[in-house]
Amino acid sequence: MADSSAPWKTIGLYVGGGLLVFSMVYFGLKFPGWETVNTTEVSPTLGLVQTPGQEARKLHPFVEFLKLIAAAAMAMMVTFVNRRFHGDKPLAKSLEQGQILLCVAGAMMMIIIGNSVARALGIAGAASIIRFRTPVEDPRDTVVLLMLLALGMSVGLGAFAVAGLGMLFLCLFLMVLHYIGESLPRILTLHLGSELGEFPTAFVQGYFREKKIRCDPREIGEGEGKFVVHLPPGSSMEAVNFELLNHPGNFINSVEWSEAPKKRKGED
């Protein structure tokens, strides 16, 4: 059954995102000093000399903590929009969490670096030790990660107005991208269980034929069946699950989806 409160949750998130953008832009314009770099560290090796009249920027713990909160809030808003308008394949929970953490990490790095060249080199050296071996299959997700890193770094620098407007632009642009290009159906493997002695293959195929969804049987056994389903963009697996499990005939008692194995080269 659909959650009747879902539209209000969506509206609340959009309103909260709008308030976040307004707050960050207002703060950034009201206190423009937060958006400027005030000092350059003296480094004879790199030939950098402190500009006369500049003062070293002091860290205020609670202000820096608010920057991290702002980075996390921005990342959650962008992640929500990206999930809502992602298209063919839903985002994995680990990827959504990684997007949020990467934005916060960008803010934290810029807070620590401040205006220190030595700190920047130190963080770059430490980051080179880390090896991320989890591939991101979707190029769009990779770019979103980079954009969130940039948003987090702008918050860490104190450029709240730039970060707020950047988040607004990214969210709106993700919505626009949702309608650009052709969406392909998801090819999934559907495992069904039934209490009947003979699996109701005709019922399953008739259901998907009525929904105009391609469904090819693969393995049919006693009390269970395996199908390859070409799920159109925008179709809900939850809706299919609910309708199959709650059919008046009660033919199906278990539903499980999995990614269909990719075809090898030369296979039809």
What this model shows, in words?
The chain is 52% helix and 11% strand. The chain is of the alpha+beta class and 268 residues long. It folds into 2 domains: 6-49 and 57-177, no CATH class; 186-259, 2-Layer Sandwich (Alpha-Beta Plaits). The protein has a 4-stranded antiparallel β-sheet with strand order 2-3-1-4, covered by helices on one side. A hairpin with a 2-residue loop joins strand 2 and strand 3 (224-231). Residues 35-56 have low confidence and may be disordered.
Question: How are the SSEs ordered, and which strands pair?
Answer:
Blueprint: H1 6-30, H2 61-84, H3 93-113, H4 117-129, H5 139-157, H6 160-177, E1 186-193, H7 201-210, E2 214-221, E3 224-231, H8 237-245, E4 254-259
Antiparallel strand pairs: 1-3, 1-4, 2-3
Helix pairs in contact: 1-2, 1-6, 2-3, 2-5, 2-6, 3-5, 5-6
Number of helices: 8
In percent, how much strand structure appears in the residues?
A: 5-15%
Query: What's the helical proportion of residues?
Result: 40-55%
Question: How far apart are the first and last residues' alpha carbons, in Å?
Answer: 38 Å
Helix/sheet category: alpha+beta
Mean pLDDT: 77
> What order do the SSEs take from the amino end to the carboxyl end, as H and E?
HHHHHHEHEEHE
Radius of gyration: 25 Å
How many structural units, i.e. domains? 2
